[in-house]
Amino acid sequence: MSTDLQWLLIRKYNSFIVKKVPEGPIFSKEPGNLLNLHSHKYSGLANSKTIDIQSSESGLQITTRKSKASPHAVRPARSTANVRNRSGGRRSLGVVASVAKRGYRPDLRAAALGRTSALLAAQKEKKASPPKKVRGKKAAASIP
């Protein structure tokens, strides 16, 4: 079945659609959708080539669907790359960019890099805020 026909079938009715505001954008929670927008370009269900980036305990997990896999296979053919947390942001961004740039889905490169940056920022531990300094009249009153 072609990807266009799949999109026409699932476009209006599927369990991943999220409609918050009647007049606003329609979002989607499907796996493989990098921007979580309900559109054919970013759909993880209707496209034969998808890039899925998820956060895991050990780091980032980048999953791509193999496009020339047999449709009669028992399990869907997927390729998975793991990037450890301690490898750093530049390495994980480089791995994601190379996956998208290799001719797999170059149109999703910017979205994949944005998703990776957001997941890396969410994984970072926040610094403790320094103690507040007393200033002005209160500082002068506390000096003996």
Q: Any overview of this molecule?
A:
The chain has 144 residues and is an alpha+beta fold. It is built from four helices and five strands, in the order αβββββααα. The strands form two sheets. The chain has a three-stranded antiparallel beta sheet with strand order 3-4-5, with helices on one face. Strands 1-2 form a two-stranded antiparallel ribbon. Helix 2 runs antiparallel to helix 3. The longest helix is centred in the last third of the chain and has 16 residues.
H and E string:
HEEEEEHHH
Radius of gyration: 22 Å
Give the CA-CA distance, first to last residue.
Answer: 83 Å
**Biggest sheet: strands, sense, closure?**
3 strands, antiparallel
Number of contiguous helices: 4
Tell how many strands the DSSP assignment holds.
5
Mean pLDDT score: 86
Fraction of residues in H or I helices: 25-40%
**Strand neighbour order, sheet with most strands:** 3-4-5
Low-confidence stretches: none
Per DSSP, what share of the residues sits in E-state strands of 2 or more residues? 15-25%
The 3D shape can be described as: elongated
Walk me through the topology.
Blueprint: H1 3-10, E1 17-18, E2 27-28, E3 51-55, E4 59-65, E5 78-84, H2 89-104, H3 109-123, H4 137-142
Antiparallel strand pairs: 1-2, 3-4, 4-5
Helix pairs in contact: 2-3
Structural features:
3-stranded antiparallel beta sheet; 5 strands; single chain; 4 helices
